[in-house]
Amino acid sequence: MSEPREDADPDSPEGRGGAAAVLPAAAPGSGRGALDRRRILGAAIEFIDAEGLSALTMRRLGAHLGVEAMALYRYVPSRENLLDGVVETVIDELYGDPDVHLEPGHGWQDYLQRLAHGVRRIALAHPEVFPLVATRPPAAPWVRPPLRSLRWVESFLVALIDSGFSQEAAVSAYRAYSSFLLGHLLLEVSQKGVAVNAEDKPEGVPAAEEAVDLNQYPTVVRLESLLSLDESAAEFEEALENLLERLELVLREGRTPRRGDTRD
Amino acid sequence: MSEPREDADPDSPEGRGGAAAVLPAAAPGSGRGALDRRRILGAAIEFIDAEGLSALTMRRLGAHLGVEAMALYRYVPSRENLLDGVVETVIDELYGDPDVHLEPGHGWQDYLQRLAHGVRRIALAHPEVFPLVATRPPAAPWVRPPLRSLRWVESFLVALIDSGFSQEAAVSAYRAYSSFLLGHLLLEVSQKGVAVNAEDKPEGVPAAEEAVDLNQYPTVVRLESLLSLDESAAEFEEALENLLERLELVLREGRTPRRGDTRD
DNA sequence: GCCCGCCCGTTTACGGCGTAAACAGAACTC
DNA sequence: GAGTTCTGTTTACGCCGTAAACGGGCGGGC
Questions:
Q1: Contact B170 A224 (CB under 8 A)
Q2: pLDDT tens digits, A17-48
Q3: What is the CA radius of gyration of chain A?
Q4: How far apart are CA B221 and CA A155, in angstroms?
């Protein structure tokens, strides 16, 4: 039930050796060792993964670490800053991912492929954290949500420019890539949230309370099975490949991808 | 400074006749009339647009309406439900948009174009609300974040199927379209947040406090002006057109867009 | 006219939140 | 051993969402 199956999603936590934990992380509640920022951030991520973002309060996180809430403030200036740290830490998992390289060794397509799957792995490993990644205001307009780190932006741009992209094309590719990743992954984790909620909420009302009249939406009803199908992995791959093809065209034609030659 | 300029973004609030307000909306604080759910939701949207999502509390919203917080509970069961209502109300602006049609009169491309721009207009009119649209868990796996309404899902699917798409292709198109919209618009409003914050925060520290060492990121520095450029409108149009072309291909070749014939 | 319920907003109250400030003890320095 | 620093606790404050009790105006039956 949890060993890697043949058609398992290669980016899902079960598809690999369990969620690639950022930190060595002693047993959850066991943390008797000294407090520090890393340990707090690690515990916060663990907590959000387990209980959901909205359950995270300073008091509860303290309790999870066997400590009073105020103790956390010795290492974290505020709850907001803690959330920023959580986002940063989660994104930093990219550096520990052996399948993602800061420098492209096998061409830019390979680089972008690996990077995309690396980010997807993070999103799937921390579905409750990811909306935070997407939502927190970036530090600067050019450090865009899904990547969030200057080092990755630098790496991205260098990779493409070294591969022959013009500066404009590289920047434009960076934008297209960002929005592709963000859109796909956010949709994917939110869909996952629904599926999970649907089955782990056997409390209170069993199901279908207000139950809108589905008769008004016959097509939705008819296609429900198709619509509910989870083809995230294949769709991600397909959309990613399409994006790469598009970028390849841009590169080969040496033009920056701006609108309008067909007509008008 | 605020009249429609020639190159103004056609979807931005200034580019049209001001933000298309959902509700007739009597003057903001003036609301002496009777309370009801619509008025409360309208006031909440107004409040979020003005003060930001995090500033919205029941007490403050009550005050904004000249009423105690508890009065709101007569019409709204909880704050969470109020936020759901806000999302729904904002999305419902689509129905009032004369440029967006529930039924395609000029082909599916025109339909998708209008719909996309309609959603973009909403996102730009309510940048503080939009992350909520993107983030709130959908009611069902198939009612996906940016569209969020069964009626639009139905309309979307019918439009494409009537235009010759297979059921599978229509569903697949719906997914691709959703993630495109979500990614692009979320990125766009979050970028806007940065730009705004940067200039309306002349309080406390003037700028650059911790100021990471930019020397490590020479490419980012060199391309800063390119990276900061706001080409959202053009990029949106380009990505949308690309998506439509891709769908056209799917339609013409009559295949559902699944992976794998090139090799492997 | 009068009274009785209902509608609708207020008051009061509770537990939990983020966090400032004072505090206590252990650990390290000399 | 005394002083200092480092670390976590205690206490306290104001704000939050919201349950529950309350009260005043208003309409219809007598």
A1: no
A2: 544 454 444 444 444 577 899 999 999 999 99
A3: 21
A4: 13
